[in-house]
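For consistency, the fold was encoded as tokens, which produced the following:
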Amino acid sequence: MSTAVDTLLSGGTCLMDHAYLIPGQERETVEALVRGYRKVGIRAVIAPLIQDLPFASGFPKGCLLPQSASPRSAAEWLALMEALIDEFHAPADGIYIGLGPTGFHRCLDELLTGCAELSDRHQLCYHTHLLETRTQQRLAQERYGISAVQHLYHLGCLGPRTSLAHGVWIDEADLSLLASTGATLVHNPVSNLRLGSGLAPILKCLQAGLNVAFGCDGAASNDAQNLLEVIKLGTILHTVSDSDYENWLTPKRALHLATVGGAKGVNLGDRTGSLTPGMDADLVLYNLNHPSMLPRTNPLRLLVLGRPTQVVEAVWVQGQVRVAGGQVQTMDTSTLYQALQQQPLSLEIGRSQHHWVEAHYRSIMPKALTGD
């Protein structure tokens, strides 16, 4: 629920949760997520994080990694996803189930294509990781002899309902191919910097016609869930990769990525993302009297590029008030914060494990593979 509260208070009306499922309690995990998101009142797309290859498979040959148990088979995962869709997918309540294979690096083709088939049959979002690290780029060449984008394209896993997290190491030659499928790249600037993954080629993605959305990534790789923080950094980060200011993201373009681009990325472009007739009433009001919004020279520029903390005045989701006077109305947040205060050790352990996996992979790989 903390993620949902943080999202609302930073101006988000919808989130995608690529959710980790507790082994042996997969259904119970999803049920708890659904219960929490309904209580807070945010629109939520829950795409369980599933894989049918062990952890070590996500690295090229020659990496010194501990062995881990094999997860469920593709057939078992797909049967579970069918059951979760039947039980929990409830668009009228703002709860959506999506398909969330971890990524090509930890999924066999059977699971990747099986998820795509379920996505097509039920018209659901298909979300996966793509080329977050240089390791994954080299793994694709080693495993398939072609790029990861080309492999997913040949499998039929790329389409208008597909969203791809990170994309830091996409080959420039693949951008047009990716754009032609109608897929969405989810840009996670804070996480990519936090873990040293690199700079995603967002300006080139946009020039190729690819839909782009902003993402916070998980708290374990961001340490916050502030949408406005992500939008600001994602807007200005690419000035270092292109010296021509005419190519830079403008605040207006950034807002488009955060709204229309984001809605398309979670397969909800026909329901939310813009204030137009026929769309659901998802609305955010900002406090223009907040010091960070003064003087009111250009409210949009100040919102995107200023210091937009505590500027959200009110939020409606599907026409229902969720935030008023800068406070969440659906629950007592003090109770939530007290519960979080009692769990600092377990949360820090989770973050440390994630950082070891992603940020320090160079220390367990041969130098020839890391490029050092």
